[in-house]
């Protein structure tokens, strides 16, 4: 997770208002737009943490912009503070109805605006942190089980005919723990996760399903090509030299089970077949790929 300067987008059809905000919010990375169209272009391109949004603007007003953002998956969680000359109850109510998180009337008190911006940025950072914790495995930095299934499901919906799974399990890992201790076992898991991750094509979903078991969901071309990829992972890992405090481990191996999507499959049944293939790989000697 990065901790870059938060990016704030200020949208107002009056240049002078934007200039005031630019100098007031100098501690943030601040972008400005003079109309809705320009604002949407910037939001499309940049990762925005907070939007300060005027309401009365020609062509597209602030409410309309906010409604659009809230209806779009990628932008629905960006907090919007309305910053407007309006102060009637109806306008305030509508601002919250369309998804605004705060409402500030112009002319505003500078320190109050700064404080209210800071609250939203802090809240956004906290949400990001929680999202990260709910999605990534702390030890390896790859997807955890929950996020793996969520992302796998997205891939499944996009490519219901060309989906492939690889289930990966480290061989005799208990022996590694028993011989070298749990911390060295952790180093091995991390190294193997990183090796798998860097050897996968783009748009592949990789997750740690548990202990020393990983899974891959990918759009592929054939079972043979997927088997070749699994074989490449197996070979690469068997050649690793894994350094730890008191030495270097070699010849750590994995077993892989590969499956291709069949009609009526769900993500679960696709993965179950890869699991059965993995079981066969274990039963017939380990350090191999079965499908
Ligand atoms: P197999 O070849 O049949 O897979 O044998 P194995 O020893 O790898 O399989 P088994 O499932 O018996 O053992 C897996 C071990 O992984 C047991 C568990 O203590 C260990 N383990 C699970 N999670 C972690 C972890 O986060 N860190 C470490 N160091 N060990 C873990
Ligand atoms: Mg205006
Ligand atoms: Mg194992
Ligand atoms: Mg296991």
Description:
GO terms for molecular function: diguanylate cyclase activity. Its EC number is 2.7.7.65. Residues 161-291 form the GGDEF domain. This protein has 291 residues and is α/β, with parallel strands linked by helices. It is 47% helix and 21% strand. The chain has 10 helices and 12 strands. The protein has helices at 15-24, 36-45, 62-70, 89-97, 110-135, 145-158, 173-180, 182-198, 223-238, 267-283; strands at residues 7-11, 29-33, 50-53, 80-84, 102-105, 163-170, 205-210, 213-219, 241-244, 247-250, 254-260, 289-290. The strands form 3 sheets. It has a 5-stranded parallel sheet, with helices on both faces. A 5-stranded mixed sheet has the order 7-8-6-11-12, with helices on both faces. Helix 10 (267-283) links the parallel strand 11 and strand 12 (289-290). Helix 7 (173-180) packs across helix 8 (182-198). 35% of the residues are buried. One magnesium ion binds at residues 169-171, 173, 212.
List the helices and strands and how they pair.
Elements: E1 7-11, H1 15-24, E2 29-33, H2 36-45, E3 50-53, H3 62-70, E4 80-84, H4 89-97, E5 102-105, H5 110-135, H6 145-158, E6 163-170, H7 173-180, H8 182-198, E7 205-210, E8 213-219, H9 223-238, E9 241-244, E10 247-250, E11 254-260, H10 267-283, E12 289-290
Parallel strand pairs: 1-2, 1-3, 3-4, 4-5, 11-12
Antiparallel strand pairs: 6-8, 6-11, 7-8, 9-10
Helix pairs in contact: 7-8
